[in-house]
Design goal:
Helices cover 43% and strands 15% of the residues. By secondary structure, the chain is α/β, with parallel strands linked by helices. It has a single domain, classed as Aldolase class I (TIM Barrel, Alpha-Beta Barrel). An eight-stranded parallel beta sheet has the order 7-6-5-4-3-2-1-8. Helix 1 links the parallel strand 1 and strand 2. The chain starts with a strand and ends with a helix.
Length: 253
Amino acid sequence: MRTQIAAANWKMNLTLQQGEALLKGILSKAKTLNEHQQIVFAVPAPYLQAAVNIINGTKNVFVSAQNIYNKKSGAYTGEISVEMLNSIGVTHTIIGHSERREYFNEHYKFLAEKVDIALENNITPVFCCGEPLGIREAGTQNAFVAKQLEESVFHLSKNEIKKVVIAYEPIWAIGTGKTATSQQAQDIQHHLRSLIAKHYDEETANEISILYGGSVKAANANELFSQPDIDGGLVGGASLMEDEFVKIIEALK
């Protein structure tokens, strides 16, 4: 079975003390994970070291950055490098989240460079793709997300793409309370997997975890995660609530 992942994206929320309490609470309540299940906590940059210390080698639980820069080091005030992440034991990073694309004008080539430098330094990219409401209403979401993959990850070799986690997030459902129906989510995630199969092969496509993000909560996690091409979730608001996120973890296949 493909790796099933409950990924928490805390975004720009919580104080250090609140974050530490939340992380400890979730870990104390979360069920023992099966070999194919993982939890990933994408915490604000100032809390990365504290999160690594709390997790302290807990099996199948990892800490992620929410962003990286496309250079190893240099005069880039305020940015975070892969070398910094490696030095403190962070293993993952989100790349291409819609908020980064929209608010910080991160586009295809820049994101491709981020994916490359992450993989070159043994950091797992959680690569986000997804469409805004206008694209969904026009019925052109399949072509829209296809271009996001083609321009930013399909330059990778077969061995490299297998190390990437894909997160599909309909932008119109992020933080709005709206959620794609389980069938809508399944349809586009199947489309993403078929694109990978066409560009690489079926075996490669069937090894890659594709997460759903967009108002995932305890009440809909079981239905969403039961879909054949949904391998867990990239969870925003609900990951800030201890009991909610624990139930989402429990919904993993």
